[in-house]
Each structure stands twice: as structure tokens, then as C-alpha cells.
Specification:
The complex is a heterodimer of chains A (247) and B (463).
Chain A: E1 4-10, H1 20-32, E2 37-43, E3 56-59, H2 64-87, E4 91-95, H3 97-102, E5 105-107, E6 113-115, E7 122-125, E8 131-139, E9 149-156, E10 159-162, E11 170-174, E12 184-185, E13 187-189, E14 192-195, H4 206-217, H5 227-242
Parallel strand pairs in A: 1-2, 1-3, 3-4, 4-14, 5-7
Antiparallel strand pairs in A: 5-6, 7-10, 8-9, 8-11, 11-12, 13-14
Helix pairs in contact in A: 1-4
Chain B: H1 4-22, H2 31-39, H3 43-48, E1 54-59, H4 64-76, E2 82-84, H5 92-101, E3 113-117, H6 123-130, E4 134-137, H7 145-148, H8 151-163, E5 170-174, H9 178-190, E6 195-201, E7 228-234, E8 237-241, E9 254-262, E10 266-271, E11 274-278, H10 283-298, H11 303-311, E12 320-325, E13 328-334, H12 338-351, E14 356-360, E15 390-394, H13 398-406, E16 413-414, H14 418-428, E17 434-439, H15 441-453
Classes of the chains: A alpha/beta (247), B alpha/beta (463).
Bound molecules: zinc ion.
Zinc ion (ZN) binds at residues 220, 222-223, 225, 242, 244, 246-247 of chain B.
Domain CobB/CobQ-like glutamine amidotransferase (chain A): 6-205
Active site (chain A): 96 (nucleophile), 198
Subunit structure (chain A): Forms a heterodimer with MurT.
């Protein structure tokens, strides 16, 4: 175990917007730099072969139309496999649309509740104004991340609310996060991570990437030279927290 | 007679234009329109009515500036007097400024044609004000989604704009773009009265067989199945069909065949029985050239005339400019989204190894505030055959860019300061070699301003 990493990319063709590919590339490279052999399993509509070998799932965001297209397949073909994967300790990173679909439901503006697959104790309600912009959060202390901050970019209209079964990924210092009301951003439960942050998320947050990788592989990882990653992280963090952004 | 309020608007707008040019605030591309519209909100519509021949609108995510300039050139050669908005000034205030520049102090318009590039999201209002005779819709690549929400919304907005076209107008549509095609199909089904002229490329020898990662319209707009692509030309533009049979590339009224690419120096092809070529490099310029040719066709221009006229287009016409400095060649190119960027990288790959690049990434409003799209650019191309020798990342988000390159196994130096980055490039390029400067929109404006200040380029409102 541990010489190989298998990434399961859910709906890579349909749920791949806002540079989700950057998250995949970061997982791949940081595993390779540690001498692991990496395999990426693209899990499109109808596909489930090999799903039991996946160490870490990535589920990105999509446009509304594309989200509708994967919806039935997610519930009918994937849900049971993903629940099994969660049981055996596989890691999940779900961003934006993917995050919403891992929750209990998405309630449309008309009040209709579209069920999600319920791996995360969160619910999402359609919102009015889109939340768009750079985000800086202070990650949840229980994650033990160093540095504490996470940076990214959000672009969503859904408002997500957390249940008792999850902890937030962090507290918003800049931006809106889950719903723009309670200061929370993202959700974590066991090895499942949901968030609204893209940007892409993982490249500029190498500490989070390594946390997810080590959870997926169930082992410690040797450190890498992250000076460029952290330079990019700090640059945007400092700009956003100092409020010096110009148009 | 010019109504007094319009006259006041024209005078105030023109005065603002002169003033902003004098104090060096750029080319007066939007301020005159803004001032005039405050006095008379209908300035644009009222002045546009005075165009003797009418107007043409150009929209789509990539290539509208080049296509607009080509159409202007076609019309000017007739000869005719043309007013056109400047690059990037593609909102209503930019259009208004353009017609103001063509108006006399009495409000009389000294122009026959208006040629306007239009921001995709504002097409409905532009159609309402300008009542164009033709609208060109090029492509709909993922671009600045953080400004408009989502691509689907954008397609519907464009559809709404075209639906409101006046009787007898033509929608000139790129058949190779699935989203543009769907707009045309739906319009045909719903209104039936609209004239559509389809254009597209038909030459497998210049196509790639696979969609690049950046392609974002891979699915059938009807049923969501993955589209089968026989050919891919640029981004997601190509020859496609849905495996379920409910959607396919429309038949082309104008089809470009026998396409010859000559690096960044030019492109030529056969269309409507004539050879068309211009000093604009890259396959993406084949689309711009063909789009302009198609617009000309819709307006009744003859193929032979257009071929002759387009052949005379100067190289600096596109969104690429070249200049010589101290025996070194430099090419300045706008690269604002994955599709455009990948095209340029593919072109660089065709040119072979040993290249020097300065890459500029900003995240201001005009660039798009979300820079995550750089992860959809195939920078890995630079690690392969063409083995970039120098990579310098600059602009507001230089670190993001350098990080993207790191994960493509490339090493870049970072300098957020453009001035120093430019000096670095000059130092890196050996005599007789060529350097490429690829930038997002506002980074491009910044680089250009610097180059003008250093005396290597002329200011754009005088060219
Ligand atoms: Zn279909």
C-alpha cells in the first residue's frame, strides 16, 4: 500500500469549470514528487469500473445545465459506490457544485428540494445575488494546518448551511463563504472536504493538499519545497486582508 | 436638423474626447460616450440613424477586435466612410464615443457605415440602439465567467439580441462552434424569419484530432451526450455531431478549404471560389478572416473584391503586434482565456524550440477577476518539443502564473514589476532571436504603454 495513488475524478467532462483541472494536477504532481505512481480514473456518466480502488475523489463544479445532466447518474450509478468508499476511508474533495451535491439537498428558488447524496451534513438553498470574489479563510484548528489560512476564489449563488455532523473548513476573513451570514466556509467530516473555494484551490494551498493526500494514503508525507506555493498564497492573502485591491 | 438636446450631447461629448486625449488619458474611447449619454440617453440611436448605409455588429468571446477591423477595412475600400469603436471599448459608451468621433459639431454624421464590436452580454441593447444589417457571432469560449455568471446565460442573451434583429438583417454565425450553432438552430426554429449565413473551416490537414482540455462545449446542447468531434480546429470549434443524432454542425454557406498556415506571418484559404489570405498568423485568424468575409458577403460585397482588399491588411491588424529592437524580434499578443492561449502556444510549438516568453497575468475587471482559467491552459506544450528557454512571469498575479508553470514542470522567474520583467526579457533574447510577450487585457495595455514610453511602439489611437 502507498506506492500508488488512484484519483477518481467525478464527471471530469461535465463538472470541470473554474480550473478544476488545477486541483487534479496538484494532487498528481505532489504525489509524483514523492515517488508515488499516480493513476487518474475519469468517472463520467455511467462509469463505475475501478471505483473501489480510488484513494481520493475529486468532484468539481459545473454550469447549472451540466449539473442537471450528471444529477440522475450521480444518484443512480454513483451514490452507493461513494458511500462505500467513504466507509473504507477514501478522501473526498468536492468544490462548489460538487460540494452541494454531496449534501442532503439543494432547494431551488421555487422551493423544490433536489436530493443530494448526503455524505455531508449540509443543505443548500438557492440564493439571489451571486457571491463572487477572492476569499481568505482561517482554517478550522482541528485540521492542524500550517499556515492556518486558506485562499481561493468563490463564484456561487447557492447558500449552504451546516448541520451538526460537520465542522466548517474554516472561518471567513474575506469573502462570503458558505452563505455570507454565519462566517463559515466549507465543511469537513472525516476525510470528506467540501468547499466553495476554487481558484484553483489546491495549488496555492499545498498544506491542504498534503492533508488530503495523507488522509487518502493513510500515512505521513515527506515535506516538499513549497516556497513558490506559499509565495502565491501569501501574496493574495496579504492583498485581500489589507484591502488594497484596485480595480 | 439636429434636435437641441442631441446637439448639446454631441458638443459635450466631443469636448470630453479632445480633453482626455490632450491630458493623455488614452484614446478617449469611453468618456465622450459617457458624457453625451448623460445629456441625451438616446445619443447612440439618434446618431446611428444618420449612418447612410447602416451598421454591422461583431460579437463572440475571441477574435472580435480583429474581425471588426477586417470588416472596417473591407468597407473603407469600397470606398465608404466608417466609424468603428476601439479595441475593448465594446460597451454602449464605447459605441457612442465611436459615433461621436465621426460626427461634426452640428451633429451631422460624416459616415456611411458603423462597425462595432460588442460585448456578448450587451448584444440586446446594442441591437436595439443600432438596428444592424448584420451581426457576426464568432465563438463562445469560456471567458470571464465571473463577470456574467455562466456561458449558458450568455448564449441565451445573444439569442435574445439576434431575435430582435430588424427585418432583412443577417445573422452571420460560426457553424464550427457548438454553442453558436445552437443559437442559430433555435432562432431558426422559433422565428423562421431570420436570415442565417453559416461559415466554417473544412480542412482536416490543419485540425487536431483531440479536444484540448480547455474545451468547454463538449456536450450536446440538446441532450447532454458527449459530442463526437471529427476535427478540432481551435478550442472547441470543429466538426462535431451528437451520437444520438439530434445535433450536428450546420451545413456551411461559406466554407474555407485548402488552408495554409505560415507560422505567425500569415494564413490563406479558398472560399467561394477565391483565394483569401492576410498577414495574420495562426489558425484562429482563419476564423477572423472568414468571419469578415462572411459579413462582407451578407452585405453584398463581391468575393474577388474582398480577397484583393484583405490581402493588403497590415500585420499589426490583429491582436498581435511585432516590432524590432536592437536586432531582436518581438511579438506582442493578447492571451486572455484558455482557448486563445492554447492557440498561441500551439503556434509557438510549430515554430520550434529555443523560445523566450514573457507572460503577463492581471486580475482586474477587464481581465476577469478569477484567474483559475490558467489551469486550463496547456502550458505543458512549452515543456515538450518547443522547449521554452526563457519564461518570465509578470503582472498582478505573476505568482499564480509561475506556480501554474511549476506544475507543468517548467521553471519561471517572477517579477510583479512589468518594467523590470521587460528588461529581463531584453537581456534573455539573443541578437537575431525572437521574444514573445503574451498578456491578458490590462497587462497588455500596461506593456504597450511601457513600450510606447520607451519609443518602440506608437500610441494606439494614432495608428
Ligand atoms: Zn444530442
Amino acid at each position: 500500500m502507498g506506492h500508488r495513488l488512484t484519483i477518481g475524478w467525478l464527471y471530469s467532462d461535465l463538472m470541470n469549470i473554474y480550473g478544476d483541472r488545477g486541483n487534479i494536477q496538484t494532487l498528481i504532481q505532489r504525489a509524483r514528487w514523492r515517488g508515488l505512481e499516480v493513476r487518474v480514473l475519469e468517472l463520467g456518466k455511467g462509469a463505475s469500473e475501478g471505483i473501489e480502488t480510488v484513494d481520493v475523489f475529486f468532484f468539481g463544479g459545473g454550469q447549472d445545465k451540466e449539473q442537471e445532466l450528471v444529477y440522475d447518474d450521480l444518484l443512480e450509478t454513483k451514490a452507493i459506490h461513494l458511500a462505500n468508499a467513504m466507509q473504507r476511508g477514501a478522501a473526498f474533495l468536492a468544490v462548489c457544485g460538487g460540494y452541494q451535491l454531496l449534501g442532503h439537498y439543494y432547494q431551488t428558488a421555487q422551493g423544490e428540494r433536489l436530493p443530494g447524496i448526503g455524505l455531508l451534513d449540509v443543505r443548500t438553498v438557492a440564493g439571489g445575488k451571486r457571491c463572487i470574489g477572492d476569499v481568505v479563510i482561517e482554517s478550522d484548528a482541528e485540521l492542524g494546518l500550517q499556515p492556518r489560512t486558506l485562499v481561493g476564489f468563490e463564484n456561487h449563488s447557492g447558500r449552504t448551511y451546516l448541520g451538526d455532523g460537520v465542522r466548517p473548513l474554516g472561518r471567513v476573513r474575506r469573502g462570503n463563504g458558505n452563505n455570507g451570514e454565519d462566517g463559515s466556509e466549507g465543511a469537513v467530516s472525516g476525510n470528506i472536504f467540501g468547499t466553495y473555494l476554487h481558484g484553483s484551490l489546491l495549488p496555492k494551498n499545498p498544506h491542504l493538499t498534503d492533508l488530503i493526500l495523507s488522509r487518502a494514503l493513510n500515512r505521513e508525507l515527506e515535506p516538499l519545497d513549497d516556497s513558490l506555493e506559499l509565495a502565491a498564497h501569501n501574496w493574495i492573502k496579504d492583498r485581500e486582508l489589507s484591502g488594497s485591491r484596485r480595480a | 436638423m439636429t434636435p437641441p438636446r442631441l446637439l448639446a450631447a454631441v458638443l459635450a461629448g466631443k469636448a470630453a474626447g479632445t480633453a482626455s486625449r490632450l491630458v493623455g488619458q488614452g484614446g478617449g474611447t469611453t468618456l465622450p460616450g459617457l458624457i453625451a449619454s448623460r445629456i441625451e440617453p438616446r445619443t447612440l440611436a439618434l446618431l446611428a440613424e444618420r449612418l447612410t448605409a447602416g451598421s454591422v455588429l461583431i460579437t463572440g468571446t475571441n477574435g472580435k477586435t480583429t474581425t471588426s477591423r477586417l470588416i472596417s477595412s473591407l468597407l473603407q475600400g469600397l470606398p465608404a466612410r466608417v466609424v468603428a469603436n476601439r479595441a475593448g471599448a465594446n460597451l454602449v459608451t464605447g459605441h457612442t464615443s465611436a459615433v461621436l468621433a465621426g460626427a461634426g459639431l452640428t451633429g451631422r454624421l460624416r459616415a456611411d457605415w458603423g462597425v462595432f464590436e460588442v460585448d456578448e452580454a450587451t448584444l440586446p441593447s446594442a441591437v436595439a440602439e443600432l438596428k444592424p444589417r448584420a451581426v457576426v457571432v464568432g465563438n463562445l469560449f469560456r471567458d470571464q465567467l465571473d463577470r456574467y455568471g455562466e456561458l449558458e446565460m450568455l448564449a441565451l442573451t445573444i439569442e435574445r439580441g439576434l431575435e430582435a434583429l430588424p427585418e432583412g438583417a443577417t445573422a452571420v454565425l460560426n457553424a464550427d462552434d457548438p454553442r453558436t450553432a445552437e443559437i442559430g438552430y433555435r432562432l431558426g426554429e422559433r422565428t423562421g424569419r431570420l436570415k442565417v449565413l453559416w461559415y466554417g473551416l473544412d480542412d482536416p490537414s490543419v485540425a487536431i484530432s483531440e479536444l484540448p482540455h480547455a474545451a468547454d462545449a463538449r456536450t450536446c446542447p440538446r441532450c447532454g451526450s458527449r459530442l463526437d468531434f471529427q476535427q478540432v480546429y481551435v478550442g472547441h470549434d470543429g466538426d462535431y455531431a451528437c451520437p444520438t443524432g439530434d445535433f450536428r454542425r450546420p451545413e456551411r454557406d461559406l466554407s474555407a478549404t485548402s488552408i495554409q498556415l505560415n507560422g505567425l506571418d500569415g494564413v490563406r484559404f479558398t472560399v467561394a471560389g477565391v483565394q483569401v489570405g492576410a498577414a495574420l498568423g495562426g489558425l484562429y485568424n482563419a476564423y477572423n478572416l472568414l468571419g469578415a468575409f462572411a459579413a462582407g458577403t451578407a452585405l453584398g460585397l463581391k468575393p474577388g473584391y474582398m480577397a484583393e482588399r484583405l490581402a493588403q491588411v497590415p500585420a499589426a491588424f490583429g491582436r498581435q503586434e511585432r516590432f524590432l529592437h536592437q536586432g531582436r524580434r518581438f511579438t506582442l499578443m493578447l492571451a486572455k482565456n484558455p482557448a486563445g492561449f492554447n492557440e498561441i502556444l500551439r503556434e509557438a510549438e510549430r515554430l520550434g524550440g529555443g523560445r523566450h516568453f514573457l507572460l503577463g497575468l492581471n486580475d482586474r475587471i477587464a481581465d476577469g477577476r478569477d484567474v483559475s482559467w490558467i489551469w486550463d491552459v496547456d502550458f505543458e506544450l512549452l515543456a515538450g518539443e518547443c522547449a521554452a528557454e526563457t519564461l518570465i512571469a509578470t503582472g498582478v498575479r505573476a505568482y499564480d502564473l509561475a506556480l501554474r508553470l511549476k506544475y507543468a514542470s517548467l521553471k519561471a522567474t517572477v517579477d510583479v514589476d512589468l518594467n523590470r520583467a521587460l528588461d529581463q526579457l531584453l537581456e534573455a533574447v539573443p541578437a537575431g532571436a525572437e521574444g514573445f510577450i503574451l498578456c491578458t487585457y490590462t497587462a497588455m495595455l500596461d506593456v504597450r504603454a511601457l513600450l510606447v514610453r520607451r519609443g518602440w511602439l506608437r500610441p494606439y489611437w494614432r495608428t
